[in-house]
């Protein structure tokens, strides 16, 4: 599966309607983004069960800001609509493969329990 271009309008639906979504936040002027692009594209071909999506941070600044992207490239991984990975910097192919395998291997019941425990344990503002 080739990468999918996301927009401010398609981001949320893509993340919530698919089991696993990797999102590459990038910009045309970004050298490391250009270096990471073929690695990300190769991963999309190897993992057809994972949506590989890209967001041009220049064209879609609203969603990049809402996602808290402060450096590019930034890779985010969502599993069942939950953000489970967020890292700035271009990953080499072996590291990206590890991220994909780790996300696929997550026990989402456990992840949700950890999120609930963290939210219940934190002081309310």
Automatic annotation (TrEMBL):
Ranges where the Thioredoxin domain occurs: 1-105
Question: Key word NADP present in the record?
Answer: no
Gene3D superfamilies, per database record:
Glutaredoxin
Keyword terms, alphabetized: Disulfide bond, Electron transport, Redox-active center, Transport
Q: Which CDD domains match?
A: TRX_family
Transmembrane region(s): none
Q: Which Pfam families match?
A: Thioredoxin
- What family does the database annotate? Belongs to the thioredoxin family.
UniProt-listed NCBIfam families: thioredoxin (TIGR01068)
State the protein's name.
Thioredoxin
